Amino acid sequence: MTSFPTHSCAVQPTLPFITPPHTNESLFLPRRSRQVPPEAWQIFPTKIPAHWHGFAKDKGFEIVRRVRDKNHIVLECQTCGGLTAHKVYTLRSAQPECAACHYDRINETAKAAGLIFLGYHPTNRHQGFFRAPCGHEILRQFGFVERCAKEDATPRCETCHAAKEQEEAEARGWELIGPDPQNDPNYRLYRHDCGHEQRVARVNMQTGRFCCEDCGEGWSSAPSYIYAMRFLFPDGTQVVKLGFSRDPQSRLHYQLKRSTEAGSTETKNSETNSSEVDGQVLCQVPMQSGHLALCVEKRLHAEIKRTYPDAALPVERFETWLRVKSEIYVAELEPVILAMLTRLHGDAHDLG
Ligand SMILES: [Zn+2]
Ligand SMILES: [Zn+2]
Ligand SMILES: [Zn+2]
């Protein structure tokens, strides 16, 4: 199986601390010093000038010892007790950061995001390695993980995601073979059972709304359904939708309901995050082809428009919840639509 997108796994996570020789303590190092080998952090046996202790105390640390060379010291954080090696210059001229506290914060944020922090990226200071709940390793920006911790985003594993996309394709007789050759992030390259390769939008692969350009097998020639669906919005509004689809369940789950998953920027307030649109297929009538279904659907909408001109809801009433632009009706029309579909079912039966 092709797994993509991928990140380079050659880069190894770096931990922020070392164990200096002949000790069993964890000595944290500032990011820039992490390339320096552990052997370099030997005690530097020289007296600590008395006034340095004052600097350290003012900044929340205590000087433990001099280390490596005349320019370095080990500071003990008065908050967490962690040891961080710093330049004397940093202590004198700036606020040294406790690398242990920083590491704790990242661990906690990762935990809140459902991840396990594995270490820093060796060169990109904005990125770290994390273990996803599925067990795979993922590389992410710290800012992104913070948003995940606040439930503003969702960490998604590329490996699992690629497997899921492959399954979706296989379910329709296609094989996922790679990313879009034209670099559209919404498209992928697939190979049909007939051998033909073609770029298809992933959403169309999920819903089956496309044809093989070579052998012609696809949604317009395949059987389809006219359906009625009921939706209940989190604000209590109930509506009914009439439409056609080769696969009404898939249309309901993948296409119609706006995602309120974390990470979506489409939700308008925090309330919408906690509530899902409730939807169900009430009835579906099989049609011989997508083309026939399309024609029948148009006829039914025209009939409703003539008989119940006020039944269609304005788009502002449902655009927050549904990914459609029109043809959503008030709940009162539900029995009318169901009666239409019952009649249609009878007709389809008579013909068949
Ligand atoms: Zn600390
Ligand atoms: Zn995974
Ligand atoms: Zn084909």
Which terms summarize this structure?
alpha+beta, 3 domains, five-stranded mixed beta sheet, four-stranded antiparallel beta sheet, binds zinc ion
What radius of gyration results from the CA coordinates? Answer: 30 Å
The residue fraction in helices comes out at: 25-40%
Q: Helix/strand-derived class? A: alpha+beta
Largest sheet: 5 strands, mixed
Order of secondary-structure elements? EEHEEEHHEEEHHEEEHEEHHEHEH
Kindly report how far apart the N and C termini lie.
42 Å
Strand order of the largest sheet: 1-2-5-4-3
Summed over residues and divided by their number, the pLDDT gives a mean of 87
Contiguous low-pLDDT stretches (5 residues minimum) are 1-8, 261-274
DSSP E strands, number: 15
Number of domains: 3
- Given the C-alpha coordinates, what overall shape results? elongated
Describe, in plain words, how this protein is organized in 3D.
By secondary structure, the chain is α+β, with helices and mostly antiparallel strands. It has 3 domains: 11-150, no CATH class; 158-207, no CATH class; 224-351, no CATH class. It is 30% helix and 24% strand. The chain has helices spanning 50-58, 88-93, 99-112, 142-149, 158-171, 202-207, 248-256, 270-273, 290-307, 334-351; strands at 17-18, 27-28, 61-66, 72-77, 83-87, 116-120, 127-131, 137-141, 174-179, 187-192, 197-201, 224-232, 238-245, 278-287, 328-330. The strands form 4 sheets. A 5-stranded mixed β-sheet has the order 1-2-5-4-3. It starts with 16 loop residues before the first strand and ends with a helix. Bound molecules: zinc ion (3 copies).
